[in-house]
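Hi everyone, sorry if this is the wrong subforum. Our group has a chain we'd like a structural model of before ordering constructs, and none of us has done structure prediction before. Sequence below.
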Amino acid sequence: MPHAAYAQAAFGSAWTAPAPPPVHALPAPGPGEIVCVTGPSGAGKTLALKALGGRELPALSDAPVLDLFAPGLASEFVLRTLARTGLADGRLWRLGTPQLSAGEQQRLRLALALCNLAPGELLVADEFDAHLDPLTACALAQVLRRLADGGLRMAVSTHNPATLPHMAPDRLLQIDGDVRALAPPAREDLGDEVVITPGRLADWRHFRHWHYLGAGNPGPVCAVYVAALRGRRAGIAIYGYPHRLLSARRHALPVLLHPPQPDTAALNRDLRLLQRVVVDPRLRGVGIARRLLEHGCRALGVPYIECVARMGAFTGFLTAAGFARVCELELPRAIASLLRFCERREIDSTRLIQPAYREYLRQRLPAADCAALARHLRAVAQSRANTGHGASRGHEPPQAVLESALARLHARPAYFLWQAMAP
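Answer:
Right subforum, don't worry. Here is the predicted structure as tokens:
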């Protein structure tokens, strides 16, 4: 007997399908606008949003983050889109989706939808804050507002009234039997609640596993600043002293700081190096990094602060804090020499990071080329060690330093400079 027939016979009542719930008509948002729908579960929020016909946040499959994006998309566009949603994090890009937190998964769904959004198309985020803790939900709501401020059309629903001030919807509607317009709350900014205090290098331990280059310690430190939000440690900025020689500096700093032989005393007096900026992934996208840098750059009291950044090409917090992007760094001599050698010998330099490929080359190359490749690799590792992040000078760099150097063989970091305003 079919289940429905059994239930009808067992309970002695007519079995009829329930009437479909009504589909409520919602106003379509214009460019730069958010329409937000609230109401109890089952009231029809999802059906009303679907009726608008926009692009919904996609489901996630079990795959590494970057593999979810269509191969035909420009890689730079993909990374910039991830940065827009608060996922500018090379550490996360290597993970599978099950390893992401609920908030990171929602940000990833948002980035995937943005990458496939046609110009002027509506973005629909139904229950965008489901399963998120209150603070993470408010941070994501503020990311949505920022995206809308950039011109997106957005329709969303939420079950959490606390997110509304941070989302700042242009229209707020409640569905509960019918559709009723509510007054949107005044806009609030989580960044305004950030408290920044001087910290210590020991504070780095809390943040280091979130840094995209790994958990290694920075070089010599002169100042640390820590941001807190609602009692939670939210971010850190670490400053140190500049390297004596840096080719990009001649494009940016006055002759005083870059004569034929750099004036070490002047460098140490007038220049600092921004070494690390890390924000708790749950709170990215609400301006914490910018506020950390604005505070730190003022507090240090020096005319110039420089930063060598790879991720700076894809995120905007450095320029938002007043840094100017000056140029890309020249390739170090050891790396340029290795790349030329690989090109002449038709060696795939992108695969040198793989130990198996290096072993393959040792077995297949002539003895003279094997010896030359070994010298080039040793020089690259030694160059990495001598920056202060690896082995001591004068010793054979350990294997870990070589792996670190080869992982960044094709990276072209940019040089950024902050200058104090004249009094």
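For your construct planning: The first strand starts at residue 34 and ends at 38. The chain has 15 helices and 13 strands.
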